[in-house]
Design a protein that fits this description.
137 residues, alpha/beta, Rossmann fold, 23% strand, globular
Amino acid sequence: MKIAVAIDGSENALRAARHAITLAQHFPGAQLEIIYVADYNKAKDERLLAQSEESLLLKRQRKIDPVLELAHHAGVKAKTALLKGDPSQEIIKFVNEEAMDQLVIGSRGLNAFQEMVLGSVSHKVMKHVNCPVTVVK
């Protein structure tokens, strides 16, 4: 069983990661793939603010490490995929190419108007991945 969880460092993403880890515990030998996408627009801003490439990588690692630690303590095998680009497109591409069995993703909690105007990563991803998706609020 290959389970993917998309994270961005938010509280919603951490809840999604906890759910994915719990799910993985129910399938002996399950592999958890932690997906983190550096948004190009945000990455440019981060790079301008960062003092070095190392500090930029460190900031990203701080978003991933808590999830890796939770997986480790739960006895779940986990790997990370650091991607760059548009989050929804990169998540869809990765999940489909890697033939994931399940994707867990956090909800951004946009209100109906914001979601209608902006769309949401979870909504776009749900429509285009080839596996079941669990959206965690």
